[in-house]
Design goal:
Number of strands: 16
Protein name: DUF4397 domain-containing protein
Distance between the termini: 73 Å
Oligomer: single chain
Number of helices: 2
Strand order of the largest sheet: 4-1-7-8
Radius of gyration: 24 Å
Shape: globular
CATH class of the largest domain: Mainly Beta
Mean pLDDT: 87
InterPro entries: DUF4397 (IPR025510)
Order of helices and strands: HHEEEEEEEEEEEEEEEE
Helix content: 10-25%
Organism: Mucilaginibacter hurinus
Length: 245
């Protein structure tokens, strides 16, 4: 009888010990990003192809294609509701005959109900292909105001090495904004603005203009540049604006 009691006690202690060891492992595995329900997480992601020589690309997450159609230069995929958020996040060429993995994006710290953008820039031929990763959220602007920020994804050539200035109705909003720099959001009164981008080293020269840009009450916007200053072909310098909210 004593032996049976000892056996039961030994089994109970063994199970209890296993439970203590296994419990942290269980919590650790549940902490993996891939185990977050993507539908519940409501994470939105967009890709901007601003590299003039990589041709159209697609976004893959956990080896599954997320973009519905290839993203060509210098366009955006628009925000995509991800159906998986496990790693890796990859930018691949859209060439079906020879799919190439061009970039791996560090997306290990995503938050629920948040929008993100990846600006692909640089040159594949010159081995400078890279990306700029942004979190597209901010506090709500004050009533009657919107917010803008500036992303410089234009390669630093043709007199832009010292950076770029962005003016809104001839008032400087951002200055000496160097390559790959992402500004904070700044507030503007809601209304129409002529946005001009100039080289910091030569502020009398206008590289790109976004005339009569409507900044709406409560909205968030990103103004970004791409291409090469001094070029007049398809790789020419340009600027566009995104609505983040």
């Amino acid at each position: 009888m004593g032996k049976n009691n000892n056996s039961r006690l030994l089994v109970t202690l063994s199970l209890f010990t296993f439970g203590l060891i296994g419990l942290p492992l269980l919590f650790t595995s549940c902490g993996k990003q891939g185990n977050i329900n993507p539908v519940e997480a409501k994470i939105e992601y967009q890709v901007l192809n601003l590299s003039y020589d990589i041709l159209p690309v697609n976004l893959y997450v956990d080896f599954l294609k997320q973009t519905t159609s290839p993203v060509s230069y210098p366009n955006s995929s628009g925000y995509i509701s991800l159906n998986t958020i496990d790693t890796p996040f990859q930018i691949r060429s859209a060439n079906i005959a020879s799919v190439t993995n061009l970039l791996v994006i560090d997306s290990t710290k995503l938050s629920r109900r948040t929008k993100y953008s990846v600006f692909i820039t640089g040159s594949r031929e010159n081995n400078t292909l890279t990306y700029i990763f942004t979190v597209d959220s901010s506090t709500v602007p004050r009533v009657g105001r919107g917010k803008i920020r500036f992303v410089n994804a234009a390669l630093p050539v043709g007199g832009t090495e010292r950076g770029l200035d962005l003016t809104a109705n001839d008032t400087v909003a951002f200055s000496q904004h160097t390559y790959k720099k992402v500004s904070d959001y700044v507030e503007l009164s809601a209304g129409l603005y002529n946005l001009r981008i100039r080289p910091s080293a030569k502020p009398s020269e206008t590289l790109a203009e976004l005339p009569r840009t409507n900044i709406e009450d409560g909205k968030l916007y990103t103004i970004y540049t791409y291409g090469l200053a001094g070029r007049i072909d398809t790789a020419a310098f340009g600027a566009k604006i995104l609505t983040n909210r």
